[in-house]
Amino acid sequence: IFIDLFGYMEPYCSLVYYADNILVNTVIMLLIVIGGIGFIVWDDIFEHKLYIHRYLLQTKVVLLTTFLLIVLGTLFFYVFEYHYSLSGLSFNEQILASCFQSITARTAGFNTLDVTKMSTAGKLLLEKIGEQTEIKGWKEYNGYTGKLFFIYMWK
Q1: What is the DSSP string of 17-47?
Q2: Helix axes 22-37, 57-81, angle to 10 degrees
Q3: Exposed, middle or buried by CB within 10 Å (0-12, 13-18, 19+), for 113?
Q4: What is the pTM of this model?
Q5: pLDDT digits over 54-83, tens only?
Q6: How far apart are CA 129 and CA 134, in angstroms?
């Protein structure tokens, strides 16, 4: 079986045929998130295990903002694309595809949905998520954005 990861065979359809395959989606999502968290964070997690109160501020902020960006990105993508590119999928497949798009837009650029069927709002959401992380690296973007948010909320 040939997997066209980069859309060479059919443009905008890199993993469209695997939109309902939970194994393929989960493995790719985990690799993206695990690779995107950063060495400092992983070192801190391995050093302190589950003692979260001992984590560096950087680790706490990166983990929290990663979680929030995944959850909020999934939610917004689901809302924007419910009647468009997600319309032919079951509820579980819709959630899986929304989560995949939320995660992959920041780093990898793969897609399990046909981009030509996406709404303008969905395309703009993916563009803005990807644009922000191209300005800074994923780890730096999460850390700086989260720190600025916490500083703003603290005052």
Answers
A1: GGTT-HHHHHHHHHHHHHHHH-HHHHHHHHH
A2: 140
A3: buried
A4: 0.74
A5: 999 888 888 988 898 899 889 988 998 898
A6: 9
